[in-house]
Write a structure and sequence with these properties.
Length: 666
């Protein structure tokens, strides 16, 4: 029995080792790449293009061949029936033989395509496109040069030289925006980004089409990525001179590495070229966008399916769980009619039903569907009429806590999400007192990084923290009442933001800063910069990729932001919201005493400050976090100071009320 099992296994292994290379042959891409580089240094740009384009085609063909062959051989030789060790090894060897034969039939002997790690990294970094854009430029093929330059820049956004080249290409005759394409764009990321833009413009129907396409492309790319993991693996431990392994350990190590590689596919597919960190919540986000887009088009069943799919990734998510319940209730509801009366004037039936948060879209009786106009149906209605309903989504914030505070604009009026503009958060007297405090305690620079003019050389930037104000007050260098006002006003702002945005957990201070920006006389003519460039508060804004990357050095733990203005007697200095492109302004806020703008800190709210061209602009800048681990240390120290001052004040009042003579205490 043993002999009968091992004979075919050894036969297959022998065939795999002796497999001939008499099949088709594909020129290795590392050889073509080296030829192209050599041609570049001898200024033979036609050869550069010929060899480099050939290298890119060869690289793509080898990759696709491996994917096709490995998927085919996996299907032909599944592990399902391998219940014993020898059967398992039999499947491994048969699958290996199948893959080798398939790949070598398409591209030739695999040893020809063993590429050095340096060349592989060059292709991952898209270095060939740098050579191509220069070669096409020399050959006066500007459309192809623009495409190559754009493709390279997508994976190397830090390249100042390529950024300048792109600007030059855009200014040249013979090029247009259609030429600036990413030749290596991943279909699933391209469709997703395009879908987000349409979604942001409320074009839900076309956005749905692109999101669905992105999902199909993502899962296709996931299958391909996992197939590429099935090849030979390398362990650093195996390079050690004392490394000893048995057959079982070797096979175990191999498949452990395969599993690790497959796990990394999730990160790889959600990471844009040139970025270290993946897009946060990338795959589930497709279903989040889809559930709301379908809902906007009254396609409630599809919205429900997408919401349920989202919960597969984030089980128990409170917001999405509520949506699922809404959608389930909204699909079909039988309304028991309270009464049916005939409108004698119009000859129609008037349907009366209990008023609720639901609005009917259309009702269906036994003979068809009838759209509802108000409460009127143009046909005979029956008891138990079935109506398809949709939940009214109202963008209303929570209470403002303080009676004096006025809501000026909500998210809709500010053309965005998670935004609010409020007035009368402070009185005129409080504004004046804090501005006087700022003139005394603020120091040049940003207050915590030591940069004198962190945003523009045309303005003087000064700032101070709450703790510094309290220290100055305790030392008698400023009125303690003014320092305490700074502390109290910032707490007032925190409570308002926490309440208005209906946060379920405590909002903590992340950083509190009393800041003033002053226009420098003689430097305002012909200014074209901003007082504070467009940015997001918890991620790195990437206008080219239409993304915001939550990675260092961004303050990724910040969740909400607010700016409380102290004055408006200056020129310029308007606060602006923009689109992700950092150019298209969606809303503008003119500062004045007591006005506060609040918003979520993520990429949904890029913002900046227009140049202050005359006078001084002062505000209390606040950043908040929902994570108590990232509470502002100086704020905690300030809390202790305030507590001590309050205790001291209480003790003083107690001592005064008793009117005790110190001598009596002796």
């Amino acid at each position: 029995i043993t002999s009968s099992i091992w004979t075919p296994i050894l036969s297959i292994a022998l065939q795999a080792l002796l497999l001939s290379s008499s099949y088709g042959s594909l020129e290795p891409y590392d050889l073509l790449y080296n030829n192209a580089v050599e041609a570049f240094y001898r200024n033979d740009y036609k050869d550069v293009v010929r060899h480099m384009e050939g290298a890119l085609r060869s690289y793509a063909e080898v990759r696709q061949t491996k994917v096709r062959c490995r998927l085919r051989c996996q299907n032909q030789h599944p592990f399902d029936s391998a219940s014993m060790d020898l059967q398992f090894f039999d499947v491994v060897l048969r699958r290996s033989y199948c893959q080798n034969e398939c790949i070598e039939e398409k591209v030739g002997t695999q040893s020809m395509h063993k590429i050095s790690e340096d060349v592989i990294q060059d292709f991952h970094r898209r270095i060939p496109y740098n050579y191509l854009q220069l070669a096409y430029q020399k050959l006066k093929q500007l459309d192809k040069a623009a495409a190559a330059a754009h493709t390279y820049f997508q994976a190397n956004p830090e390249s100042v030289e390529m950024d300048q080249n792109l600007e030059q290409y855009k200014a040249l005759e013979g090029t247009n925006l259609d030429h600036f394409v990413d030749r290596e764009a991943r279909p699933h990321q391209r469709s997703f980004s395009a879908g987000v833009k349409l979604y942001d413009n409320a074009n839900y129907e076309e956005a749905i089409s692109l999101f669905e396409e992105a999902l199909q492309e993502y899962y296709r790319a996931d299958v391909e990525c996992r197939a590429l993991c099935q090849g030979p693996q390398r362990f650093e431990e195996q390079d050690h001179i004392l490394y000893r392994y048995s057959l079982y350990q070797l096979v175990s190590d191999h498949f452990t590495q395969v599993l690790h590689c497959e796990h990394e596919c999730v990160r790889d597919l959600s990471t844009r070229p040139g970025r270290l960190s993946p897009m946060e919540n990338y795959l589930p986000l497709h279903y989040d966008y889809l559930q709301f887009a379908y809902y906007q088009l009254n396609m409630v069943e599809e919205a429900l399916a997408c919401a349920q799919s989202y919960l597969l990734f984030h089980e128990g998510d409170e917001f999405m769980t509520e949506n699922v319940e809404y959608y389930r209730e909204a699909i079909v509801i039988n309304i028991s009619l309270r009464s049916v009366m005939t409108d004698m004037t119009r000859g129609n039936l008037i349907i009366h039903y209990p008023l609720s948060k639901w609005q009917p879209l259309y009702c269906k009786a036994g003979r068809g569907s009838f759209f509802v106009g108000g409460h009127s149906l143009g046909t005979t209605a029956i008891e138990g009429l079935t109506c398809f309903l949709i939940l009214c989504v109202c963008s209303v914030g929570g209470p403002l806590v303080y009676d004096s505070v006025q809501l000026i604009q909500n998210s809709q009026a500010l053309n965005g999400t998670q935004r609010v503009l409020l007035d009368d958060v402070m009185s005129v007297e409080e504004c004046a007192e804090l501005k006087n405090l700022a003139h005394t305690i603020t120091m040049a620079g940003d207050g915590y990084r030591g940069k004198m003019s962190p945003h523009t050389p045309n303005e003087r930037f000064e700032g101070a923290t709450v703790l510094k104000a309290l220290q100055y007050g305790y030392e008698g260098r400023v009125p303690l009442k003014s320092a305490r006002l700074f502390y109290d006003v910032s707490e007032r702002a925190r409570r308002i933001i926490e309440s208005y945005f209906l946060l379920n957990s405590t909002l903590h201070f992340s950083y509190t800063h009393l800041v003033c920006r002053t226009a420098i006389t003689g430097q305002q003519d012909h200014r074209n910069d901003l007082s504070h460039p467009i940015h997001a508060d918890n991620c790195l804004l990437d206008p080219e990729a239409n993304e915001c990357w939550k990675e260092a050095p961004a303050y990724t733990y910040r969740d909400y932001s607010a700016l409380l203005y102290l004055n408006g007697d200056f020129e310029g200095g308007e606060f602006i919201f923009t689109e992700m492109d950092a150019k298209t302004v969606t809303a503008q806020v003119k500062p004045k005493c007591g006005r506060m703008v609040g918003f979520s800190s993520g990429g949904e709210n890029p913002h900046g400050v227009r140049a202050v061209t005359r006078g001084q602009r002062c505000a209390v800048a606040l950043w908040f976090t929902l994570d108590p681990l990232f509470r502002e240390l100086e704020r905690l120290q300030a809390d202790e100071v305030v507590q001590a001052l309050d205790n001291q004040s209480s003790q003083s009042k107690w001592d005064t009320s008793l009117n005790i003579n110190p001598k009596d205490e002796l």
